[in-house]
Amino acid sequence: MNSIDPIVMKRRKFWGWGYEGEGVSDAELLDLGSSIRDRFGLKLQDLEAAPTIDEIELRESRVKSKASLEHLLSADKWSRAEHTLGKNLGDFVRGLERKYDNPPDLVAFPEDEGDVVDILDWAEEEGLAVIPFGGGSSVAQGIEPIVPDTFRGVISLDLRKLSRVLEIDRESRSARIQGGVLGPHMEDQLRPHGYSMRFFLQAFEFSSLGGWIATRAAGHFATGFTQIDDYVQSMRVVTPTGVMSSRRLPCDGAGVSDNRMFIGSEGTMGVITEAWMRLQDRPSFRASMSVPFSKFEAGVGAIRALSQSGLYPSNCRLLDPVESLLSGAGDGDDTILIVAFESADHDVTPWMNRALEICREFGGRVESDKPADSSQGAVGRTGAGGRWRNFFVKGPYYKEGFARMGILRETFETACTWSAFPELHARVVEAATKAVKKECGEGAVACRFTHVYPDGPAPYYTVIGSARRGGEVEQWAAIKAAASEAVLEAGGTITHHHAVGRFHRPWYDQQRSDVFAAALTGAKRAVDPGLIMNPGVLVDA
Amino acid sequence: MNSIDPIVMKRRKFWGWGYEGEGVSDAELLDLGSSIRDRFGLKLQDLEAAPTIDEIELRESRVKSKASLEHLLSADKWSRAEHTLGKNLGDFVRGLERKYDNPPDLVAFPEDEGDVVDILDWAEEEGLAVIPFGGGSSVAQGIEPIVPDTFRGVISLDLRKLSRVLEIDRESRSARIQGGVLGPHMEDQLRPHGYSMRFFLQAFEFSSLGGWIATRAAGHFATGFTQIDDYVQSMRVVTPTGVMSSRRLPCDGAGVSDNRMFIGSEGTMGVITEAWMRLQDRPSFRASMSVPFSKFEAGVGAIRALSQSGLYPSNCRLLDPVESLLSGAGDGDDTILIVAFESADHDVTPWMNRALEICREFGGRVESDKPADSSQGAVGRTGAGGRWRNFFVKGPYYKEGFARMGILRETFETACTWSAFPELHARVVEAATKAVKKECGEGAVACRFTHVYPDGPAPYYTVIGSARRGGEVEQWAAIKAAASEAVLEAGGTITHHHAVGRFHRPWYDQQRSDVFAAALTGAKRAVDPGLIMNPGVLVDA
Hey, which residues does B89 pair with through a beta bridge? Predict the structure, then answer.
């Protein structure tokens, strides 16, 4: 049974989030549902049952394994279903509708880099498309096997067996890690050595190192080095024309960056089999505070000043009143700024004190007069910050629950300059609210900042409304289109960290320069002349 | 007279560093020379005269201006000579030998982006190669017009007239700046607004924003965001197939980075006409200290700990005893660690105190018991740090002087992981010292760290020896080859911030992956199908 995760010996759900039999109970979901209904005046529907594998029909596999690769390939129904859909609202809804229209013909589970080479070689010979698959957490249809008819079939290439931390270089505080490792298992292997990658994105449990690199994920750190890009020291990428390997360097100035040409390539250039990654010492000093602001604009001013202060807080988020209410962090009156520092080297009190001073200057209500100290906030797991954190961690489980109970809840995110933000925010909220009203009747649009930079924030929007059974995909498509148009017109990007995939392609094509598109296509064609790698993503198939 | 700098109304030297009639006096040079002779036992030779324009013979220009572009093009002897050689030892020596073998046929001085488009179009039609030229400070023959015979001629495209700060966005702390602006003139335009780019690389006076971006220059900040790459918010690049323009974004996660595909392209993909750049507030809090260590290894340990501390000092350099002696910062016994913090937002005393604690832990002799305060060190312009800084700033002027007085003095630099450093350093010093002995008799090899990262340093080596008149190019080639081989074998890069150009090409080709080379070539061919842009650099012509 190839679809069993090798480490935990558990099977991942083919629909929804997590391992079979795990997640949030129906009772908890109903509780959450009624609380949300009360707060936002939504209609709730009966909790729909998750699909069982027997209810799913998959089209026949069109591809027969090559004998020498048979041990790596699976036509198993569960595996194929598990690799059919990602984790956005449309994926969950289609799963609930038992619509698994684009299954891969086979799922490959390579055990080492040589296997990846062999599989790509065979795919090229046979005219098969290959879709690299890490944790499968894409919310942008990045792993959905929709490929042109010119291919004889499509393989989902699941890296879960490349899951080891292979080497640790203590002096250089870095580790050589295989691309298929999921967040928790990677941290389990780093912890005994005193290290952590501290890359706790929301999909942490079911996303892989290779997936983070391929999609330019943004992680735990809200300021400074936010993107996985900054933590890649070197990579190995199997392309159809050979292995790209880069030198282990702390920084390089020799020509165009080799790593950066493959980071963010979303499976279109090759398969990331391993990378040397920069690690963090496990922090021993921490301080965390939640600061309420009566006005959203004042919170924005404070967080902008923090972003430009050179203090580099590890956490620095802003929740608007709706987001606070939605997550249970607040009562819906205040904007809440969460700021935290962490260090393995030094007491962070002076940092926090200055950050709180900045908050006060902008009208933030810093509750305690005494200087924040490192024991305060107990890792930010109490108070408003703690409540928000709990909601954040359980988010992916709630998401499948919302789909089951007829709540339309989905997110989109962007980044823009500080000067562009006020208009972008106004236009996005207006467009999304109008679309929600039209599509759902009641509903709400919430905003938070997930990351901030000296030159701008990364705003993250949550939309919530009543779902129309059977119409959710269209409802969301209409809201998303309205919001995306506003984002692009106001100068934002279609994604700060959710990747392009197939879902964001129309807006991605609008926002990028044709000359860059030509350069990227040229690079891709050079390493993947058969265009077999994740066709249709980033570059025309 | 196109070769007059439009702002300062001065003419740049066609040989050496700086404006005509400016620089270091012969008396100062002789003084420096005899001090170096005494310290390193070198032979000094008579101060050779800089070439005059009448002594230079240039081959006839093979290209006639197109009438509609005549006002932008110059076949003027001074201009052509000025655009023939860069600023490395071989360039200075060849200039002293009056060898200007590869002059451009014409020098273009576009006045806006449209002019750049017109010039590239015309060059493509006429079969001419185009070499983008910023400040001309390349030490890697990146702007030397050596192109294949298949071209009918070659144009040096000098951006000096694109020298304005066009727009400032205060809220987003960024500015739209033309690519041809030189460091000082850019700062002059930012200063009245309270901003600075704080990108004070050694070539600051005669290097341009576009040049920094094209060559991935590393600047003032010794830790954290060191490279110009990190300060680019968006770009406009004129390629032969159109203008690449990217969105103004503080961070983007949509596919492969568009900016990063053009940053470091060294003129091979197009001409950077302007960029939105992230700025810094002018610092008001500073602290700077020089800490001597009796052992180099102890200094390395301390600076490694600093690099991993999360303190992010703005300056964090290590000078080995030879470097200290060479620059006058020390007496040649101690290794000196220079550490500095700066901020526009907060007193940096807590940062400095912790940094000095780290230095003490590694045996550094922190001279003062009282905590460093922000007034101390007066911007680091006094003491050992100040002496070193003075030598650093005058470096490019001294460099032409050394060539004139028969001192072979040149540098090379790299980056590697902390774990690779001890062996890299031992091998490099051994190979370079052996080569210096063989080529020069007496001499020395000095090392400093210009930048440090959590996973490794950027070591910078200075070689000094007695020159053999007429044989300097071969002497240096032999030393450079020996050192470069050691660098590559020990896991370093051929350049951390000096770029590849034509000079580093053999080693660059060794260190990069063939698959990446193919991808880069694919990208280049897509935007420059005639391969007219800086042929031979990065990609085969």
Answer: none
